[in-house]
């Protein structure tokens, strides 16, 4: 009511009165100085009020009439301009038809001023109840948040992602994200959708950095593909345990390196009651799939390798709480509120990026810089690349603009397929940077061109050193580590390459480098007008030459690191023609890598391509051709195509015996593998004969403690186990285990597989406690080495489930049997066969359902098993007849009264 928020006109009158009074008594005009128009004190008060004005309903009352003063004069003591603070939230001016002296003195209830104030107060009182209740609820949420903070809060970290040091612009988008994601504890999901290079990831980073205090924990998840996302969940689990231990369920999953279980358990932690203030960012979900074909492999006749498409929804916590951000280039992702991220609209925002990356100030005063940012059309990645170039090269923005226009023109001529303005803008800036790199360091430029034929992520020094004797001079120079570091640093300085911030266990010695997906597309589309078959061969040679075999220490780690580069090379080789000479051994090496990773259909494609060329160039009787045929037979075996495997094994064995002799190592390998086929076909006598022959030959050639001898001895133990000769099985298995531990150590895959097999023997002997301990040891090691989906891991889970089943722990056994299936399809539509391991697991699961009085489930499972056994062995096989008899017995039981 008549308060001088902006300073009052009555101040001068007050000062006159103070001066007059000071003649008689001490007087101070300090307060009056504060009430002067635009005084520092008032500005401070208004500055403090502005940000919190939205928390209050404020009415600014001012007088309409002048107030009489001495000598018959009148002044407007508190006009509207003094009383009302403009632009504040939830504020309203009220005019009182009185002077300053009488504005709160009403003659009656009918006074216009009284009625105005009364009506205003009545409205405010009506809103008070709702307002107070809302504030009480807000206070309660704050108290709950404080209580939960101790239990669920984690330190803020974005160590998994590369981010710019000076994020600029996107104020509106940041405010929108804040409004959606920080105003509730219920599930809030925002999908940030845009073209590549627009800044989706950097926007998510900036939001997290600005608002992390609003969340109890922030998790960054790399959603490029399913396996990469699982690795991010594993790192999230490690963070949770480091700061919030103990959590028994999460500790168990991490100890077993069970990535699927880790995903579930992190989701369980995020779903706990009261844990509703977290933020999870799923970055680069660019391959969505919400249909029925999630995760399936392509046919072996399909040129593509493995689809990256997957459904992200199973990775969301189950409880409807917390906040989720998804960044994607796909417009089909409709999992929450969609934010379409456009190019930067304001020229000043583009200039800020240019200034930040070029380290040049006041570009706003440079007409050429303004023109350049207009040409780059608000594309952050292009602006950053241009800025990085200007930081490295002493030229003006006008000179760079001329380079850009020249690059644009040449790009239109050389790459007419680039239809969008955005692609041309970004590609033109990268062309300019590439030309400067080429002038400074030829090897750096050639490395960037070669990178088009590797995967965009995790290129490292050791990968380029592997093509010894086949490398061109420019690559041979990079074999010197210091030269490599200088060359890669030049690319980083130009904003084309980034150092990976997350270093895996197998990357500590040689950390990797990556390029943005858009930069990689430019390498492919522009640096190569057509496929450079020499570079394809060179990249494939680098990968193939580095693929380790089972004799190498922890070979599986390097295999997994190479896999994405093999995928990239394979895709290129499938589309390229005229690749000379070395392709056959490259295909063969890639086939071996894929077979080791249980990707048998892709391995089959590789071996078939190699075999086709070898038949033409070397002939069907050449040893190299026969070796490839042998490995092709292995892919048939692992796909449970036993008849095809047997036929090719017999053909190769016959030729090995003729060309190499009956005791040669290759011949003995073929004998052993043929015995394994007989073992899976329940032809135990023939299998035993094969294993005995191979064992004698290996011991003569290599001695006992050799992996070839130990492997066949273990296979012999399998025959004894299947025949019920348990004491012999135990004896021979223990011998093999001691040999593996001596030669390869206790954590090697072969050793762990022997541990699992001994657990099976103990289970058959009824020594269930010892069996459980051995199976759990094997499972922990194999999951750590190979992952959850590998055949050896799944077989170990199968063995542990069988132990639980015998112990009568029905629920746990059922869970483990289902885990052992690993999400695999029982039927293999591409081959017409079936997965034999899955059939064995399903048969035991059906038996469990039958024993626990669940006939409908048992029947459903048995029908699947019967169809599978018919596909693998034929309808007259003993296995198929056994399952058919069970189905008939169950039908009889159900028809009895």
Automatic annotation (TrEMBL):
Keywords: TPR repeat. Transmembrane segments: none annotated. The keyword Translocase does not apply. The keyword Metal-binding does not apply. TPR repeats lie at residues 584-617. It comes from the Eukaryota. PROSITE patterns: TPR. InterPro entries: NLR-like, P-loop_NTPase, TPR-like_helical_dom_sf, TPR_rpt. Gene3D superfamilies: P-loop containing nucleotide triphosphate hydrolases (3.40.50.300), Tetratricopeptide repeat domain (1.25.40.10). This is Uncharacterized protein. The gene is FG00204.1.
